[in-house]
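To whoever is covering the structure queue this week,

Two jobs came back overnight. Logging them here so there's a record in the thread.

Job A:
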Amino acid sequence: MTAIERVDDVPGPQGGGVAVPLPAPGEVVSLPVLPGQTVRLGFDAGPGEVMIFGDDLVLDFGAGRVLRLEDFVDAARAAPPVVLELADGRFLPGDALLRALAEAASPAWAAPEPGAFLGAERPTLQPS
């Protein structure tokens, strides 16, 4: 079974985040996440599938290796959002990941950024 460790050198609720190793073949690892928490992915994710299932973020690395971050959508929309720390040391805020997934799924229907209309005229429907 894959061990999830609490780590104190990354930000998160109560002073620490969590470090998650790559699940073993055939293993599904489920982890509840919180707003402001950092989830350190201790491996190079490489190719795989990323999807939202309900309120969870599901990362499928193939060979039955699945990481399910429970309540990710709510934690990503919170202030501060949950953050993924990638193996190369880069940080990916959850809200940015949600926007990227929405744009990839349906660019025409992607939600505008908060405040996108500030200082600009709001679009209106013009009758023909």
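Job B:
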Amino acid sequence: MGSILFRGIVIVAVILACATGLTAAFGLLVAADYFAFAIILSPPLAALAAAGAALFFCLLAVIAGKLTLAGMKKQPRRSVRMRIAAVVGEIFGKELAAVADRYPVRSIAAALFAGFALGFSPKLRGALRTFLRP
């Protein structure tokens, strides 16, 4: 437990140091922009131009972040029905596979009959569709 806490403290310290360094670098970038703009503009306009450049950089960072997050797929939460289906599949899947291996002709006939019944009966298709939808 102590090593996990120590690792967490080290990670937080590294993140804090990186955030402090990036803040300082961003401040120096704004200062460099100010001095670059001060050559061609008056000091108040140079300060305004440097602030505008900093805001533009922040806007670009926000847009890049939104595009990155939009590109990531959200993992849907598994519903209770999905969990039940997974458990039932784990329980009965191996047994059904063993039965199908033991009786291959009957398994093929049952699968053909079930496919024919689902293809022929709209009510069975609808019932299966509503059962399988989350």
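Note for Job B: The mean pLDDT is 80.

Please reply-all if you pick these up so we don't duplicate work.
Q.
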